[in-house]
Amino acid sequence: MTTRLLTVEDLTVTFTARGRRDVTAVSGVSFDIGAGEVVGLVGESGCGKSVTSLALMGLLPRRGVRTGGRALLDGSTDLLALDDARIRDLRGTQLAMVFQDPLSSLNPVVPIGVQVTEILRRHRGLRGERARAEAAHLLDRVGIPDPARRLKEYPHQLSGGMRQRALIAMAVACAPRLLIADEPTTALDVTIQAQILELLRELVDQEGTALLMITHDLGVVAGLCDRVNVLYAGKVVEAAARRPLFAAPAHPYTHGLLASIPRLDAPRGQPLKPIRGSVNDTIAWAEGCAFAPRCDHFSPACLEGTPAQAPAPDAAVPGPRSHLVRCVHPVNTATAPDAARRDGQPRPGHPPHPPSEPPGAAPAASATKEKAE
Amino acid sequence: MGTETTGATPPDGDAPRPAPPAGTAAGTAVTSRRKDRIDRLAELTARTDTSTGSGLWVEALRRLRANKTALIGLGVLAVFLVLAVIGPWIAPYSPTAQTWRGEVFPNRGIFVGPRSGNWLGLDHLGRDELSRMLVGARQTLLVGVVATLIGFTVGALIGGFSGAALALGGRAGRTVDTVVMRFTDMLLALPSLLLAVSVAAIMGQSLTTVMVAVGVVQIPVFARLLRGSMLAQANSDYVLAARALGVRRRRIVLAHVLPNSLGPVIVQSTLALATAIIEAAALSFLGLGNPDAAQPEWGVMLAQAQRFFDQAPMMAVYPALGIIITALGFTLLGEAMREALDPKLRS
Amino acid sequence: MTESESASASASGPEPASASVSGSGPASAAPVPPQGAPPAPLLTLSGLKVHFPLRRGVVFDRTVGHVRAVDGVSLSVPAGRTYGLVGESGCGKTTLGRAVLRLTDITAGSVVFDGTDLAKLPEGEMRRARRRLQMVFQDPLGSLNPRQNIESILAEGMAAHGIGAGRKERRERIRAILDRVGLPAGSLSRYPHEFSGGQRQRIGIARALVLEPDLLICDEPVSALDVSIQAQVLNLLEELQDAMGLTYLVIAHDLAVVRHISDVIGVMYLGSLVEEAPGDELYGTPRHPYTKALMSAVPVPDPKAEDRRERILLTGDLPSPADPPAGCRFHTRCPWKQPTRCADERPALRPAGGAGTGHRVACHWAEEIAAGTLRPTGDLAAPVLHRV
């Protein structure tokens, strides 16, 4: 197998606060990205997707965090083992990150231009007029009109979409080989989101930048990602290329998510099938499948320790990059959400599943776990 | 960033290791284990209403108890309080009697340091320093508490009135608030010591003057703080929700806005106590305090001791240390309370 | 907004709609036929304007301008149905929802609810009127007082309106409503922070429903919730509508959510309504350029649909509502902008697409665009064929 740009093997991140139980945010996540590829990390709040990205960028605090596993850049450099100075050099030149909230990611008291030229000076040694010209070019590249004027403005003078563009400009200033985008469009309006996604797509297509897309929005994933990893409670529960994942989601969680999202192209009254409970209703992976308490397919076999990652029922060629699922009872393709959806009757024929959280169950569990958080 | 993983996951248990061999284990063991596990899941998903629910204050108290800073602060304050209460009874000698007048000659530079009979030595008039410290604690606490109470009460009334008017009083309320707040801004702009000196000048030299003067200085601080806090709460979603429910304005202010605004003000009052003690000491030091210098008070003692600082520095160090440690106790407690009451740090 | 509309609104306003909202509304009787004859409107807005003064000053504040958050919106919500209001941040949809409840001051226009113009009610009567119009908020935690337990939160509205004779009777009602929204009865003495996001939103819904309102204004009811929880709350809202004959005004930025739950959808842009139509009609034939762009921007969780999707990328950002563009508010970003009319004549919301469709659009060139005789001037992003 050829060397991938980034290979993450068995990444584990545990938060160890004194006087509290250790919290494992990410446990044994493995995936890889090739040049010019878009890989998605999808999951809900607390699934560990953001922690994964911070760990790769070396942005987690050293104290109170235990990191395990490897993240190999070009098959040789382990990002997790680098010291602060080395990883700082890599950030910007090899790796770059775009965050969810563009306003708080920019320094509010420094003009945009200074923030961009600072990066160019540090990583590319550009100075003075050349740096300014390159900065203007970068802003122009990400679609900011009138870049020369914008360079003099402060972050609060830009709109949300423009700020995100400026951040992307800063991220790609040194032509990084891997761009990590952590919910880059969540804070933006949908028409602005479309612009930003288009921009990211262009960067990938034209520059060959690899993109690690971290999002909760399955719609964004469906349009953008080549390969998708679905995270639940810190583990990849399903990994597949885009089309097989959406055509035949094998993990009950993925399956449930797809059946519970209202779709713009579904007629009025198409019933939704929610997943019961909340993300707080979980059990430790060591004891079984963390999704078991919310799963419709639950059986005692789900509590026989961590389920192994195995080829999904529809995986044609078993292999590390085929359709993988971590479930004892993978959903059969026959009951994929497409089929389920078409069966659904419009209102008021409500879905057979009780939509509510199990009375009495969730509140206590969630309350205790939120405290532990 | 945190996750909801219930925690027991050992770091080594996360590798993509082979599937738990369901078929290989011995049959009976498996069934019994299975039963346990189903029970475990049931227990996990049915952990019902054992928690009765605790309010914000109860929880703040619980967190305060687990906070080292708070415990140290509380400890210091407890010692201080006990001294203030029982001081006059445990003082070995009268604090005003110049029993050893004949042994101290300030103009010749002869002072008496710590000795077996007088653990902290004698002051410049031959009075027992320890007794004066013990009795003085009560006065000092009284000045601090009364001054802060004056500041808190008047300040909270002004701030609360102004905040309520602004938050829910419409156009007229905004005008009321503007007038009131510009006035407090003027107070705030005056140097606090100057303000205190002016009050003292009007009222004459007495302990009451010191308390009022220090209290008046605190008024605009409390007023501004409560008003700002109320304004923030009044713009919150739950106040909007209460209005949408059709709850009366008066009730919204009293039941929603005010209780949620008091946290920072209470924290401020513990911090203010510390500054009040120091400022009272400063006023006494400047000679605006209790005219009867025989009555011990730490600030007055410090003021008097400075004249002899070259020959007998310890005479100034004792009351200074007393003031510093007490102020530190209040500050520590205040900081801890700020943390405990911050809703963002909950859970 | 126009003369004829406000006339028809005031004409239909006084009609008693209470018959259809008390108990067995039409919604519970049969699946709602989106194209059927709409029931009498329960809520009618005409020419609603909410302008916020911009103040500045050293000692006393002076008004230096206005933010036109809502600038002339006319719409009516049929009893027992769901009206979905969709738009991006800053379009004024939240302000509109609050103006209906008079939580913000109304600058001009009328809000006729069941025959009464709420905009003209004195403050005290408005407070009592709020029993029948309730609201569900976006932030489930922020909209609950952290110092109140659930019983106190739910009892507050009842106390304000004198519902329930005593503590015991109120508690009975609270238990009933908690059961209805799917919360355990043991929640009574617990505090908001002890619940998960979805449950908090259920508490917010229960707080509104315990007053037995006729109209529920849901401001972004699910946008703060996790994806897997959103469906639970949406389903709950639908169940409650069926069971209690509620009328909904749902305000959201997520077109898919609005489409899922609404009978009629109104699209807002910069303080005004640019298009209004029944859900399927709007999705099938969007007529306003902004609606087209908005729909094309919504990602669909289906790679096949995604690869086919034609994207209309808008250039630029939302103009400031303090200084909206003259003429059509959208002309600064519109790919179909024409040299005439667009920049200087504000289009009225007028019927389009034939009678009976209930389709209204505020665009001078809607017919020409629909017929294909006008081509977009900007460059539309072609369907992106994805590398597979």
TrEMBL record, chain A:
Keywords: ATP-binding, Cell membrane, Membrane, Nucleotide-binding, Transport. It is found in: Cell membrane. InterPro entries: AAA+_ATPase, ABC_Ni/Peptide_Import, ABC_transporter-like_ATP-bd, ABC_transporter-like_CS, Oligopep_ABC_C, P-loop_NTPase. One of its GO terms (cellular component) is plasma membrane. Pfam families: ABC_tran, oligo_HPY. The keyword ATP-binding applies. One of its GO terms (molecular function) is ATP hydrolysis activity. Residues 348-361 have a biased composition (Pro residues). Signal peptide: none annotated. One of its GO terms (biological process) is peptide transport. CDD domains: ABC_NikE_OppD_transporters. Coiled coil: none annotated. It is a peripheral membrane protein. Residues 6-258 form the ABC transporter domain. Residues 332-373 are annotated as: Disordered. NCBIfam families: oligo_HPY (TIGR01727). This is Peptide/nickel transport system ATP-binding protein. It comes from Streptomyces aidingensis.
Automatic annotation (TrEMBL), chain B:
It is found in: Cell membrane. SUPFAM superfamilies: MetI-like. It is a multi-pass membrane protein. Keywords: Cell membrane, Membrane, Transmembrane, Transmembrane helix, Transport. The keyword Transferase does not apply. InterPro entries: BP-dependent_transpt_permease (IPR050366), MetI-like (IPR000515), MetI-like_sf (IPR035906), OppC_N (IPR025966). It comes from the Bacteria. The chain crosses the membrane at residues 70-91, 141-168, 180-203, 209-226, 253-278, 316-337. One of its GO terms (biological process) is transmembrane transport. One of its GO terms (cellular component) is plasma membrane. Pfam families: BPD_transp_1, OppC_N. Residues 137-334 form the ABC transmembrane type-1 domain. Coiled coil: none annotated. Residues 1-32 are annotated as: Disordered. The keyword Coiled coil does not apply. Belongs to the binding-protein-dependent transport system permease family. This is Peptide/nickel transport system permease protein. It comes from Streptomyces aidingensis.
From TrEMBL, chain C:
Gene3D superfamilies: P-loop containing nucleotide triphosphate hydrolases. Pfam families: ABC_tran (PF00005), oligo_HPY (PF08352). InterPro entries: AAA+_ATPase, ABC_transp_ATP-bind, ABC_transporter-like_ATP-bd, ABC_transporter-like_CS, Oligopep_ABC_C, P-loop_NTPase. Residues 1-30 have a biased composition (Low complexity). GO terms for molecular function: ATP binding; ATP hydrolysis activity. Keywords: ATP-binding, Nucleotide-binding, Transport. GO terms for biological process: peptide transport; transmembrane transport. Residues 1-35 are annotated as: Disordered. The keyword NAD does not apply. SUPFAM superfamilies: P-loop containing nucleoside triphosphate hydrolases. Residues 54-295 form the ABC transporter domain. PANTHER family: D,D-DIPEPTIDE TRANSPORT ATP-BINDING PROTEIN DDPF-RELATED, TRANSPORT ATP-BINDING PROTEIN. Belongs to the ABC transporter superfamily. NCBIfam families: oligo_HPY. This is Peptide/nickel transport system ATP-binding protein. It comes from Streptomyces aidingensis.
